[in-house]
Specification:
heterodimer, A: five-stranded mixed beta sheet, 17 strands, flat, B: 391 residues, alpha/beta, Rossmann fold, seven-stranded mixed beta sheet, three-stranded antiparallel beta sheet, 13 helices, 11 strands, 35% helix, membrane (chain A), PtdIno-glycan_biosynth_class_S (chain A), endoplasmic reticulum (chain A), glycoprotein (chain A)
Chain lengths: 580, 391
């Protein structure tokens, strides 16, 4: 107020020299600065701006963020370079006379043999053969005094731990007659094997090497694990084996179909229920360790093959050449159904009874020779067998001819195809190994163990890729929402994974396999949860189009008033300097 | 359909056999060269338009569906998404048909078309769910893409498109970035071995610009800035029946049979500018094999790898139980009684059911808000002192 009066006096004193505009301006300026309404207005504008910036911006940022529940990103990135130890518990039993006395006194002890499995993938695998050496008990000694290996094996008492993945090796005297002369070892259908002992200074080392050879042949080899990790390894175009086995899944649906293209001539009966019960069920009960199996069967009439067979005059039979086989499956596949409710992969086994006009029908391989089994299979799909009707059955006048299918050769073929589809090939042993014949189920126990090892490792590799790709996706695509239940599934998958890895290094294959299955289920559930679908990709121009009508009407008055305040302050300062 | 195959194939088989002197040697070489590494084929065919004047898009998709089925991919491996409002449209002078040639030569609708997503189910969300596998648990098998790491997937899309987007059913769009991200999600989970993406829309090349996942080959009917044109109108039906690009692709596919050795370079030459008016484009930089070595049937057909079974398992025949279960079967058949249909429905129970009493719920938010507003306005107008008469 004092300044105002002073200015006014000065203005009066210097009146003739000042212009009107100047005087008005000088009178207006203090009013502008000091008017209480105007000050309140300025304070209000400043408050609005502060609120908008301090409260509004963070609130908007927080509420438009995609919700992401916490995930263990660091643990997931560690998974990639994980070291998996696969422990195989081997119990080695020495019979009297198989070791020099000096070494016998050192028993019992345990040797651990750990080696790297070289695979060209990031996951490192080590196999650990834990061999527990001991002398044989009296019942075992008596059993091993039999004449042939098979009898000895049958007479052996059941081992204490016959769990999945373990091995029992018996070392018999070097000159023993249980094995034929040139054979070094015998591998039985269950988890037992016999190895010849040795004499001399380095007896234990020599025996140790033989035992390792046998143990590796029966359980973990590079090929087993390579086939399990087939798609994680760099692609090798010439290696067909990696493509053959069915992928690890929680369950499988097996369908047996009888194709009768000519019901006018053949009335085909097949006792599929009985055959499944007698021959397939024992096999399946062994395989049920790796998944749930459901079986069904059907009969299809007028289902033709897609290819017309050629007539071979020399044998007066019809032949299907090997290169036309790939085209056989497709027309038939359209007719084969599958259960609508289950999502398990389907394995089809087809039995084709050729039409009267094309009987008998044989399959030829590339060189023109007949295939003895008259069957072929397709990886990851199933198998087809051609069943020729006995020509003597046509010597009647009553059509259709009744055909009772002999299920034994059919089931033999189907079971061997099933083995191949699951990746259990006929074992290749070195020359001096004697391989025992397979048991009645059709699958040797240690072959099943190999399958379970492969599946467990495959499951763990799948979990690693699923979780790492989920983390990568979340990084790359910013709009994916992670709900709490998805996060809990991821945590559960991680826990099951750790448990599986722990159990594998402890040697409990069954528990480890179950844990690996749980890990796979949880990780798949998390990855394929329907809520992860990011549908809200907004390109930048669409983002502007949405936000501008909301923010612009609010922002414009604030900005303008800010600018006005700043301009006025600058003017006031300039004027005050001038006046001063 | 099946008898057609049997009739066609013998001539083709014989021709195939007689044209090469030593089939086994050549077969080995061919196998090495054309080995593609896949074991099954899937196809996702999408028509993104509805309404009568978009007849040609439905005819496009159905023609590709027919070719793919003819070459061997079964319905269980095809996901067909159509608006399906052409055949029974009131404006269709020939109901229950969809023609793809003028003069109504070829009816592509027929009896055995299995549409998996029809009408309003063809949305961007469902399409992306099918691709990424994130379908709700209630979706049946036919609505899922159950491909694995050894599947070759063919994706065909047609409709109206623009620069960087494709219009779905006149109400929403899918952008090329979303599509590229969906393919990346498929790749991360290894849901395909190799993929062929064909798109027949205006400015189709913009849709494959943003792909960044490996093993994807893409074909489009026109470049950015160009329109894809339709082929020919049929005066009786009153609309255009097919698009040019798809028409010439189909002419090319008619000559392909399951044993054909035509490769992708031939497909790239289909529909030159003189016939198509627009310039078809393709993108192969993400694909690992040379297009020369990629067979058409790798994607459009379903040729399976087959191995001969040479060894068998030996089983002990179990004679006693075999005959018995056979007899058991017959007895079971005779004992079963026929059920009468009406006896299965508890009609009396349904008719005499008492209506369930509905539970009382307190008034919801809207009603409360409305009453609060009315009360506030009343007291504002007439002053707060009236409140004491309420309580």
């Amino acid at each position: 107020m004092a300044e105002g009066r002073m200015l006014g006096e000065r203005a009066r004193v210097e009146r003739p020299r000042l212009e009107r505009g100047d005087r008005e301006r000088n009178q207006a300026l203090p009013a502008l600065i000091l008017d209480p309404e105007k000050i309140r207005g300025k304070h209000a504008a400043l408050c609005f701006a502060t609120m908008a910036v301090m409260l509004g911006l963070p609130l908007w940022w927080k509420t438009t963020e995609t919700y992401r529940a916490a995930l263990p990103y660091s643990q997931i990135s560690e998974l990639d370079s994980l070291l998996l130890r696969l422990r195989v518990p081997v119990s080695v039993v020495f019979v009297q006379g198989s070791l020099p006395i000096v070494d016998q006194q050192k028993l019992p002890f345990t040797i651990v043999n750990e080696r790297d499995i070289p695979l060209k993938c990031k996951m490192r695998l080590k196999s650990r053969f834990q061999q527990a050496y001991r002398m044989a008990g009296s019942s075992e000694e008596n059993a091993l005094k039999k004449d042939t290996v098979q009898e000895a094996e049958a007479a052996l008492p059941l081992p204490k731990e016959d769990s999945l993945g373990s091995l029992n090796i018996f070392v018999i005297p070097e000159k023993s007659s249980l094995l034929p002369q040139d054979k070094m070892s015998y591998i039985g259908p269950k988890r037992t094997a016999f190895v010849r002992g040795a004499h001399g200074r380095q007896a234990l080392t020599v025996i140790g090497q033989k035992i390792l050879q046998v143990a590796q042949a029966m359980s973990l080899t590079e090929e087993v694990l390579a086939s399990a990790l087939g798609d994680r390894l760099p692609e090798d175009k010439l290696n067909l084996d990696k493509r053959r086995p069915l992928k690890s899944s929680l369950g499988y649906e097996i369908t047996f179909s009888l194709l009768n293209p000519d019901p006018k001539s053949h009335e085909v009966h097949w006792d599929i229920e009985g055959a499944v019960e007698n021959y397939v069920q024992p096999f399946m009960s062994l395989l049920s360790a790796i998944g749930n199996f459901s079986m069904d069967s059907q009969v299809l009439y007028y289902a033709m093959l897609g290819v017309t067979p050629r007539f071979d005059a020399a044998t007066s039979s019809y032949t299907l050449a090997a290169h036309s086989l790939p085209h056989v499956i497709n027309p038939v596949e359209a007719r084969l159904g599958s259960r609508a409710a289950s999502l398990y992969p389907v394995i089809n086994f087809l039995l084709y009874v050729p039409e009267r006009a094309h009987s008998p029908l044989y399959i030829q391989d590339k060189d023109g020779a007949r295939v003895t089994t008259n069957a072929f299979h397709s990886p990851r799909w199933g198998g087809i067998m051609v069943y020729n009707v006995d020509p003597s059955a046509y010597n009647t006048t009553r059509y259709p001819v009744k055909v009772n299918v002999d299920m034994v050769p059919v089931m033999e073929v189907f079971l061997s195809q099933m083995r191949l589809l699951f990746g259990v090939p006929h074992p290749q042993m070195p020359e001096n190994f004697l391989l025992g014949s397979p048991p009645s189920e059709g699958l040797r126990y240690w072959e099943l163990d190999r399958l379970v090892w492969a599946r467990a490792v495959e499951n763990l590799a799948t979990v690693i890729t699923t979780l790492t790709s989920l983390a990568e996706l979340l990084d790359k695509i910013g709009n994916i929402v992670i709900k709490d239940d998805v996060a809990s599934e991821v945590y559960r998958a991680m826990d099951a994974f750790q448990e599986a890895a722990l159990e594998l290094s402890a040697g409990n294959l069954e528990v480890a396999f179950r844990a690996s299955r749980e890990a796979v289920t949880s990780s798949e559930k998390a990855f394929f949860d329907p809520s992860l679908l990011h549908l809200l990709y907004f390109p930048d121009d669409q983002k502007f189009a949405i936000y501008i009508p909301l923010f612009l009407p609010m922002a414009v008055p604030i900005f303008l008033s800010m600018i006005k305040i700043i301009v006025e302050n600058q003017k006031a300062r300039k004027d005050m300097e001038k006046v001063d | 359909m099946l008898s057609k195959c049997v009739v066609d194939c013998p001539e083709l088989c014989l021709a195939y056999l007689t044209s090469f002197p030593s089939p086994s040697v050549w077969q080995d070489q061919a196998e090495q060269l054309f080995k593609s590494g896949h074991t099954n084929n899937w196809a996702v065919l999408v028509c993104t338009s509805r309404f009568w004047f978009n007849y040609r898009h439905v005819a496009n998709t159905l023609s590709v569906y027919r070719s793919v089925k003819r070459l061997g991919i079964p319905d269980s491996h095809i996901v067909l998404m159509l608006a399906d409002d052409m055949a029974c449209n009131p404006r269709n002078p020939k109901p229950a048909t969809v023609f793809s040639h003028k003069n109504m030569e070829l009816n592509v609708y027929g009896d055995d078309v299995e549409v998996d997503y029809r009408s309003y189910e063809v949305t961007v969300e469902n399409f992306l769910r099918v691709l990424t596998g994130r379908v709700p648990p209630s979706a049946p098998r036919s609505k899922r893409l159950l491909s694995d790491d050894r599947s070759n997937v063919l994706i065909y899309m047609t409709g109206h498109g623009g620069n960087g987007f494709l219009k779905f059913q006149d109400s929403e769009e899918i952008t090329n970035v979303e599509l590229a991200d969906a393919f990346e999600q498929m790749w991360q989970k290894r849901r395909y071995h190799e993929m062929l993406f064909i798109i027949d829309t205006c400015q189709g090349a913009s849709m494959y610009e943003r792909f960044y996942s490996p093993n994807v080959m893409a074909l489009a009917s026109s470049q950015v800035g160009e329109d894809s044109l339709s082929h020919q109108p049929d005066l009786a039906i009153g609309v255009h029946l097919m698009d040019r690009y798809t028409f010439y692709v189909l002419e090319f596919l008619e000559e392909i049979h399951p044993a054909s050795q035509a490769n992708m370079n031939d497909l790239f030459q289909v529909c030159p500018k003189s016939l198509c008016v627009s310039t078809p484009g393709h993108r192969t930089d993400l694909f690992q094999r040379n297009p020369q070595n990629v067979l058409i049937t790798d994607f459009f057909g379903s040729v399976r790898k087959v191995e001969l079974t040479t060894e068998t398992v030996s089983l002990k025949p179990d004679l006693s139980s075999m005959g018995y279960s056979h007899l058991k079967c017959h007895e079971d058949e005779e004992l079963a009684e026929p059920l009468s249909y009406a006896a299965q429905l508890p009609v009396a129970q349904i008719i005499h059911q008492k209506p369930k009493p509905k539970e009382w719920h307190p008034p919801g938010g809207f009603i409360l808000g409305l009453w609060a507003l009315i009360l506030m306005v009343f007291f504002k107008t007439y002053g707060i002192k009236h409140m004491k008469y309420v309580f």
